[in-house]
């Protein structure tokens, strides 16, 4: 009799854990005896527990190491790294184990120099992941396309002869660091034909790529989310209003001077070196727009790993500060008529939901994720053009071909996992 299959998922927070959890549910529905381990990193652990899962973290394996060594490694790296939703013991274990792995691979001096130059981008915990895979003995490893832990898990799996599946979240355009890899998983899942073309152009063998859509988008078809959005409109008294969602995230800013200086935030301006500077410009413009247009309302939502770096400020009429850990992103998308983004994947999710999307083309992160070039959104050249673009989009709504991508992606990803993970 065949033993139950064992699958290991490795993912971090935000949109990536949202891709993974629906797939786990499908696998468990199909095969009740299946054994699934979920290594949930950063804010992914909080979200997994909130949805009833019992994830693993680095701290669950800290006993493999000397506690004093991990503490010595982690303590100098802790400044500015602690997130309120991540247990300090997990942060210490993550930093300590990753730095110890770097130390073992490169030696003390080189490890310190690499971290000083690259920060967490220097981490590639291959030794830890090899030991983890030997301990958990999965039949297949499934990870998202993130660097560091996820990349190391897939690389270690390949070394040990364990099949691997990589769930790619976006379109992998030219310039995406993911395409710099010299080794890819046995199978990759991607959003659309555009994603497949970009992966092939980046050197991924075409026969490994499966177009599945994103399981993170499946709940856009969930009647519960639509019901929540309708309830929000009623509770907020926003029936009949045009609702704008600002889904922002931090990034290295490009200073905007001269004719656009009138759009500086009303509160104390951020230093131009602060990665919150750019999204705060957009927020200020949209707040001002809503004040001047009584028929509109604004939802402000920042990336769940970054929201603690922003302040909601004093309450304003027709402005809702959305706390990501308390509100599903699709609830906010379905509440909105128009979604404005700089580099957030919520722009793509909004397009899939059939919403009008505006993307800030002056965003420093645009070269890696150019939503307007992909046809996901209409581009906004700069801060000075944003109010006019909002006005036009609210008067003449639009949608894109990506509205066809909704639904059933989790099952298609599960099919790919079944394909590569056969247990006799």
**Alpha-beta content class:** alpha/beta
Helix content class: 25-40%
* Mean pLDDT across every amino acid position: 87
The unreliable regions are 253-271
β-strand amount:
5-15%
Tell me how many strands there are: 12
CATH topology label of the largest domain? Rossmann fold
Number of domains: 2
Which strand order spans the largest sheet, edge to edge or round the barrel?
2-1-3-4-5-6
Helix and strand arrangement:
Layout: E1 6-11, H1 15-30, E2 35-40, H2 44-50, H3 67-74, H4 88-106, H5 108-118, H6 126-136, E3 140-144, H7 149-159, E4 164-167, E5 187-190, H8 193-201, E6 209-211, H9 223-236, E7 242-248, H10 277-292, E8 296-302, E9 319-322, H11 329-335, E10 338-341, H12 346-352, E11 356-360, H13 371-374, E12 378-380, H14 383-395, H15 409-420
Parallel strand pairs: 1-2, 1-3, 3-4, 4-5, 5-6, 7-8, 7-10, 8-9, 10-11, 11-12
